[in-house]
Amino acid sequence: MRRPSSAATSVSLWTPRGYAPRCVFSLRLLFVVSACLGATSVKQLVANDVFSHYEKGLKLIQAGDHRAAGAEFDAAIKQAPTHFGRGARGSININTARLMQFRANCHLNTFELLHAEKLYLTCLKVAEAEGGNDGGQLRHECLSSLGVVATRQGQWALAEERFKDALQDARDPESRATTQNNLASLQLLRDDVQGADLAYEKALELWASTDGPGKQLGLASSRHGRGVIALKKGEFKKALPLFETALATRNRELPPNHRFIGHSIEMCGITIAHLGDFEAGIRKLRQAEQIMKSYWGDTHVEVAEVQHELALNLAMKGEVTEAAEQMTRSRKGYRDHLNGVLAGLSQSEQLRFLKTERHRFMDGLALAHLHAQHPDIPQLSWEWVVNGKGLSFEILAERHLLERDSLLSGGAADTVRELADVRRQLASLSTVPGVRLEASQQQLSDREARLTRDLGLRLNSGGASQWTSHKSVLERLSPGTLLIDFAFVDRASPSSSGFVHPTKNSSNGRYLAWVISGDHDTVRLFDLGPSRVVDQQVAELRRAIEQSPATITQDPISAAARINEQLRQLSTLLCGPFLSDVAAAENVIICPDASLWFVPWSALLLPDGRYLVEQAGTSLVVSARQVLTGERLPCNPYAVMMADPDFDLRPEDVQSRIQRAKLAPDRLPTRSSVGKLSTVPRNLQRLPGTLAEAEAAEPLLTQALNSRVYLYTGTSALETFVKIIRRPRIAMFATHGFFLDGALETTNPLMRCGLTFAGANQRNNTDSFDNGILTGLEVLDCDFRGTELVVLSACDTALGASTDGEGVAGLQTAFQLAGAEQVMATLWQVSDRDTASLMQRFWKEHVDQRTAFKALRDAQLTYIEASRSRHGHAHPWLWAAMQVVGMSR
Fold it and tell me: What is the mean pLDDT of the chain?
């Protein structure tokens, strides 16, 4: 059987900065023996069928049709066990595994990473079981390919580990050289220019020592990579001949319009433009775009990459309209790519991946900032923002819904239960005081990531929704509604190329705001200035609020005046250019970013001295896509309320329901132990205000819902009951909240936030289903699908780890990911007494309004009026901590 050429079976390591082909060696089939014997048995016919599909698959790969090739390899794999039988040391024959490897290569070429990874791991097990030269070679190739998968998923440490293992297993110079090229590309991703240069130099030495079929293309790949290094260093005259030499080789060795040829033409165009000839550079980039489209179709990440370069160069040439249109096409392609990658990653992996992949998104925002006055930019750039923010949040929400469904259908119930157990163990570790368990946490985190990837494959999660047009959002905005979409951009102007990262400079960061009114269909874009100024003002305001309990006691009138002045300054910074629009709106939908998630928006001061809440209702969304609320999921027609837990309930009594203990109320306690903590303390105090709040709300909700309201207090306010309730219409948890800080900063943010329930003070250090501490990580495994509203009437429940463009990973987000449509949470430590008063009014209003943010607004207005009448002030610390995130349907 003929040996396929490396060109026919190569697999590209796509990275934002370089490309390295991977050669796949031949499948060692035994057709020749059967043919020589002249066999005509069913087994021989099957062998011929396998051979036919294999040959067709190779030809389709050579033609660039990887999806059709994959179907041929699928057919061959289905027939292979009949011909090859079992392996010498396992159920899968190594020749069948070779066919599976070719199928995995097709998945990798089409960026179906989860499917590729699963097949490579299967092949790796076969190779390790079978051993020998064939097994060793297959192991090397699979390890190298798994390194490519990890690189595309942004798991750089894992990718480096796999490439290094592959190098140790390599049996010939060509295999080592191929893997060395991939390792060098990984170094480029990490911006380790020196390490990449050394790795490419080593690869060139290895290529020079071999006469294998992949030598010329391997040399071209190494030269291409060194050209990228020169480009990143600004050595354009050195980069151009390297790209041109690589292009000449690829033109000679590859079929016309192969994507590697498109890569080289793209890099030539970028370099020529850098040398000052924009016309020639743009022509090259257009040529590269056509090649990529002919190879991939109109939408693919490699097409999007070229379109991004075109957008940057067209903008520099002054052709802003076409630049913006190309950037829109590019963002669509990148969104599709990110959907596929993120669907198979855990939350922490998603956030790490997005952090590395936001460079080109930042370029788009910077282009919008630079050309904000151009008439086409505000509308087009807002689409980039609408579709670029909240991707991780949306994908995680979909996956958690699928997890819940799988428990009912049984499709992946075993994996879902195992994942829930791992999260429970992680949650237990996060609340053990004085014990350093980083190694155990890392092991469990790695296990959670593996289970998440497996679920992504088994549940067939499709990722986030498709591209959302600005018109579809505009159509859903009612008259009187103002939508403000904020975005942090880390640079004042775009990079010269997506391959050249600008030097990081915190002074270059800015906030932009897109303002859209439901009264007309225009989109306006505003530059709010340096982010450091805004972030400093937000931090100073939060420090002042944290000190408010003491300052109110000393001089409440002066304390309120000082806070109001800070709020006035912040209002000017955030809304100054369009403050008159805010002052005229009836409802304001805010989509914050970065530190703006921690702003008490309802307390911002308008020009006439009123708070924003006195003019309009406010609600927050992670992305403007949430305005497009779909059909409501069904929920159960009851409400659940938990309040005043008995924190001193002994572990042996946690599962029993005893008579409530009536403890003396503490004087003006807050619903947080001490705010930001390193561990959850064991001296939590009872909160009598929460009991009054719940008891006042119970009859109101019973009347409003015309159904049962389950109230759990004291010894019955157990963590277990939160975990076992299913899809209530309304849920309220009034207790201590926490956000852990300091020692656990490197862990999953959802391990660092939570609520406390009965027995929290007496919890032991052993793994337990109910230790009185419900972390955000455990909330993910609760079922709040279809729940209209979750009220977290506790302290710091809106806090968490803020990620640019992705909201806040905290308790508020955890309940939304578990299915809740709206979550009401707090931005700081709140007074038990005043919060009880505010929430009692909220529940009265909620019966009439049936909309959380309107009910909250009316309750706040009533509180403000009463406080001013009684005390001469309405200090925001007393009433502005609560915020509503999400949209009602």
Answer: 82
